[in-house]
Amino acid sequence: MPTDNEGMLTDELEKILESTENVKLIYVIPDFQNPTGRTWSIGRREMLVEAAMKYNVMIIEDNPYGELRFEGEALPSVKSFDKMGCVICLGTFSKIFCPGYRIGWVAGDENLISKYVLVKQGVDLQCNTIAQMEIAKYLELYSIDDHIAKIKQAYKSRRDIVVKTMEEEFPEGVTFTKPEGGLFAWVELPQDIDSRDVLVKCLEKNVAFVPGGSFFPNVNRYNTLRINFSNMPEDRIVEGIKLLAMVLREFICV
Which residues form the Aminotransferase class I/classII large domain (predicted)? Predict the structure, then answer.
């Protein structure tokens, strides 16, 4: 689906919905999207719901990163524009509390949720009971909002240092996003460079990233890559970006 910096191009979406039979659902990550870190505008969110209602198509709004905003105003969810129960919103504790707790939640129309519960029971009965009890006890004893504020401060600092280092070190012809939140920055290389080849060289220097080609099932975009800035301390981030830049200069100067 074609996109720009404001999200999915809804006029292109309408063309597809109009010409394609049996579209089951539309899956979107409107806030700090994985892999690009981009965020949808309010207008795009509203137009998406209007198109879904017009063509009677469900929307899955996956929002694991929405609470990790570092700057700018929080935007209304896609679900907030839903007047017909066509949007199902997903969230998770794995990005705002602890990565090892793969516990999430679903918000949607009551009839849809009841069917979802039946399907889930047929798959795995229920989520990890101990993890749910531990999260519930944490929420009872502590403030999750205070915790989120703390990790946002850490992630913002790491976002700032990764962007600053890329600005200083990356060679001409390489572009990247500066996300307002979330965990990822998106890098685009010159068209003739395959990020998979870059990764092989980077791994020799103990630097890793996710090549971007696998995020595009229908087109060739192997000149892209995703950087996650959430895990490493700032000195390691600087070291890693400098080593990545060194490898990129080898490819671009060839």
Answer: 7-240
